[in-house]
Design a protein that fits this description.
The protein has five helices and five strands; from the N terminus they run E-H-E-H-E-H-H-H-E-E. Strand 2, helix 2 and strand 3 form a beta-alpha-beta unit. The longest helix is centred in the first third of the chain and has 12 residues. By secondary structure, it is an alpha/beta fold. The chain has a five-stranded mixed sheet. The chain is globular, with a radius of gyration of 12 Å.
Length: 122
């Protein structure tokens, strides 16, 4: 199973999410998308998920903070207690044996990030 994890700023658009997703996935088949639990309810993210027709995993703060990630964004660390919400969400949703297959990439407009994790949870 491949999970695409997302981090994004307030005011993100579907186009921003799609751009980050396309950059990170590079044609890989994604089974699920994930983000922080509060962000999962944003209008743009819900619309994006509906467009893809994929299930959404809403990850609680403690699960995000528990992940071992590659990227270290100070802003993300300060706000979310993780260096990358995208990487942490992907790993948390993909399960305990998950590993990153695409580190965080940033959308062209810098509003969204996406990372991919490979895991064994279905």
């Amino acid at each position: 199973m491949i999970v695409a994890g997302f981090g994004f700023r307030a005011g993100v658009t579907v186009d921003s999410l799609s751009d980050a997703y396309q950059r990170a996935s590079a044609g890989q088949v994604v089974d699920k998308i994930a983000t922080a639990d509060d962000k999962a309810q944003s209008d743009a993210f819900r619309q994006f998920a509906d467009t893809l027709g994929l299930p959404v995993a809403a990850i609680p703060p403690l699960a995000l903070a528990a992940q071992s990630i590659l990227t270290r964004s100070q802003a993300s660390s300060d706000a979310r207690n993780t260096g990358s919400v995208a990487e942490a969400a992907a790993l948390a949703a993909a399960g305990p044996t998950a590993r990153l297959v695409a580190a965080r990439v940033i959308s062209t407009d810098r509003m969204a990030t996406c990372a991919l994790a490979l895991g064994d949870i279905q």
